[in-house]
Amino acid sequence: MLVPTIGIEVHVELKSKAKVYSTAKNEFSYEPNTNVTLIDLGYPGTLPKLNREVVNMALKAALALNCEISKDMHFDRKNYFYPDLPKGYQITQSMTPIGHDGYLEIEVNGKKKQIGIERIHIEEDTCKSIHGETGTLLNFNRAGVPLVEIVSKPVIETPEEAVLYLEKLRETLLYLGISDVKIEEGSMRCDANISLHEENTDTFGTKCEIKNIGSIHNVGVSLHYEENRQREILENGGQILHEETRRFDDKTGKTILMRTKETGNDYRYFPEPDLPMIHLTLEEIENTKKQLPIMPDVLRENYRKLGLNENQIKTIIAARDLCEFYEQERKLCDANVLANYLTGDILSFLNREKININELKMDVKELEEFVNRMAKKEFSSKQGKELLNELLENGGKVEEVIKKLGLAQISDTSVLEEMIIKIVNNHPDSVKDYKEGKDRAIKFLMGQVMKETKGQANPSLAMEILKAELSK
Amino acid sequence: MKKTNYLEKSFKELNELLKNKVITPTDLVEEAFARIEESDLNAFITLDKENALKEAKELENMEVDNVLFGLPIAIKDNITTKDLRTTCASHMLENFMPIYDATAVEKLKAKHMIIIGKTNMDEFAMGSTGETSYFGNILNPWNKKLVPGGSSSGSAASVSARIVTSALGSDTGGSIRQPASFCGIVGLKPTYGRVSRHGLIAFGSSLDQIGPMTKTVEDNAILLNAISGVDENDYTSKDVTDDFTTYLGKDIKDLKIAVPTYFMSEQVNETVREKVLEVIHHLMKQGCVVEEVNIPYLEYAIPLYQIIGLGEASSNLARYDGVKYGYKAPNYDSLEDMYEKTRSAGFGEEVKRRIMIGTFMLSGENANQYYHKALKVREMLTDGFRKTFEKYDLIIGPTNTNVAYPLGQKGDDALKSFYDDILTIPVNMAGLPAMSLPIGFTEEHLPIGLHIIASYFNEGKIYTLASYLEKYLNLSLDPNKKEEETC
Questions:
Q1: Are the beta carbons of A47 and B235 separated by less than 8 Å?
Q2: Contact assignment for B325 to A45 by CB distance below 8 Å
Q3: What angle do CA B9, B473, B437 make, to 5 degrees?
Q4: Which of these, A115, A120, A177, B320, could form a disulfide with A99 (CB 3.0-4.6 Å)?
Q5: pLDDT tens digits for A200-258?
Q6: What is the CATH code of the structural domain delimited by B6-258+391-486?
Q7: What is the pTM of this model?
Q8: ipTM above threshold 0.90
Q9: For the segment B9-31, what is each residue's pLDDT rounded down to a tens digit?
Q10: Cβ of B364 under 8 Å from any chain A Cβ?
Q11: A332 with A445, same domain?
Q12: Touching check for B235 and chain A: CB below 8 Å?
């Protein structure tokens, strides 16, 4: 049987303040060619600098991907001609990638699997070419933007695994806080290669590479297509003769041949003489390790222990700002009730208003108070919703909003007792049902209490009194 | 105009005259341009007369605050000067106007030195005769039928002819020392990392250094003081400071000096060898220990240079592709065609030959077979120097195997142009500092240079020995006065 082997290459833009080899701002969005220094232009006589923030960010990624670290590393020149390449070479890392031989753990159908990482290295982006009718224009703002390239080992066995790997990788890099990892904006770029070979043999088939796929979902779709295309050729006695570079057309769902690979590009790599050898000390590596944020896998475990359901966990972890917020607040109020509201009413509100959690009008202290009072069941869920909505829309203090909405509670035992005795006496049938063990009865009687008090009875206190009354 | 001869004087002598208001910077600038008009050496590509005179005028009302104040200097044309054309003697950069000053130039301007112009050189510093320049060859002031050496040809010729007080050159395999020896001046290649390379248009990045070219040893030390120091724009520059003038005139009798056997072998011209031996004998008489040593791998200098130096060059010159600055072919059919036509027409033959050699050395399997092996040999060669310097303060020998030779002689042989540098290249490979010091003349009255090499950041020891020899030999090194003397 023919089985696929898949490898994934990802380029990720790092969000350091400055570019990797110059002091220009790392901001692509500015007016074209305004974030540029002489170094980015490859101006004669200039030499690269090295932004240590970039090295540190790449180190974080390498550590989070369980890589071996190249303690003594240098940069290399990758030589080729293209108009978007200002110096005629790219400064990258060929021989001493900052990290190598790591792995990322994914969960395939409930089973854990490690996907090997061959290498992660630092390099610079090129200019952005803008092809127009009168010619091609270059935007140097992108030249020198820091990238890390992360190359998986060819150990991915299905397109689904490829998607899981990329989702996990994206999540990891997002949580490291080193990149926006937005595929649609180009801060994460994926190339996938796939070949088929007979199961239980060692020799790989001839691979095809699909370049620059526009979304993680489409990595799966394009790999499926490519798997089937190659399978059809091979099963009909054909051969894949040359390595090919293909692109994915998301309108037709097909991959299209771009070019056949010649016998390996000759990039004439050699050590970059303008940047001295970098030595990463054990201390630096250990400190960076300590500074790594809590990773999603650990968070997931913690949340399961707290009793959050899988949907809540997924929702919180998918949005890093929400998760950061939750991590901070869950210790200051009831974690379960908070998770409930955060992934429910609050998230809907944020989506509707198109704002993030840190832009809420509601003070966090008030949110904590709200959550804690809901945890004590001081209000019915309907009241809670009303109260929260008001707080989200207009802010203010919980206490004041309660008064404003007339949600003040009746917590006076004597008042409640008098009312409950009357209700019990007026509903002998329900009392009988209760004593015969029908749970529904007590809910009905509570409903009567709420109706009588227009929902303002303290629910837990009322329940206590009702139970006492019924057991008399 | 009354003809003056101030530019024959040393920095300190001129400084006294300026401080005492005997002369003004304008006198010096005017004399420099008068001498240029008289000369036919073709030492300059671009002159900056208007600005130089303007600056000199401005300096007249300022206090003479340092020894370099108001002195005219020339800059090799591969070192960037803001708003002053910098061509690398190439058609490719014929109209290149840099928008920044090299760090070394910035430092000289801070001292109020006055830049007279940009000196002619071998194209992109590739050559040892000055003949590969797009702007025509340069003549040797001692004999105008001979080459001045290269690649810092114009810098050496203009200092030798007393057109300027001093000049900056650059040295990748001997490009300061070889022309200094051919023209009878003092030229120093500093330790790699001593002088910032920011603004030096790269040839072999791991070998290149900017250095001072002067009439005297003292001037050389003063000029090196001015241009050295760590620079945030060059990550390979080192934070080491020194005052080189403090080493001048120090006692030499405790110096231990090594002479590599290879430096004194048959390949060196006999007269040159004899002059070096005379110096050696004299030093021994003065109490110096001078011993012959064997430094392994010295003989691999040329292959190392061709592999590492030209490999780096092939990459450094890739940016001249017609897309950004410099020459662009006027007519082309495609991108590929534009690259081809631009680079075919923009670069001269020697540069193209070297780019091709370098590209070959880095291509595919050759990278392992040549480049990576060369890096290992380079390390072993460096190690040989390191071991020698554990026992000795200095290494000496001839700067070159020969003295200046006739123009056009090397034109046909692509390999011959490298052989001028077989004694100087090892120093660049190891990143060491070295000087060429004039120690005498041949029968044809052509200058001979002594090569003095020190360990890392020990330029001071070079200056100690050089200042001693300069004083002891007391040579007359002004080619303009050659006739008077021989008469």
A1: yes
A2: no
A3: 70
A4: A120
A5: 888 889 999 999 899 999 999 999 999 999 999 999 988 888 889 999 998 998 999 98
A6: 3.90.1300.10
A7: 0.89
A8: yes
A9: 999 999 999 999 999 999 999 99
A10: yes
A11: no
A12: yes
